[in-house]
Amino acid sequence: MTEPLNKAEVSVHMADGTTIKGLLNIGKYNRLSDFLNSKDAEPFLIVYDASMDGKAGKVVIINRNHIAWAAPA
Q1: Which one is the CATH code of 7-72: 3.30.1490.190, 2.30.30.240, 2.30.30.100, 3.40.50.720?
Q2: Which of 15, 18, 40, 57 has the fewest beta carbons under 10 Å from its own?
């Protein structure tokens, strides 16, 4: 069963210094922190309508293990 669409605007800073801004489906969770700290979450995040390195409108797949920090935008 697919999680309901629950968009959150996020800013994700990666361990290599890259910052990605875009939309993330946090599904059943009310807060970004609950989604990111969930034990049953997938190992990868899909950020869409993402902007990074001066390019916008991308879809970016992020490995959770490489996130330095994330915040609601």
Answers
A1: 2.30.30.100
A2: 40
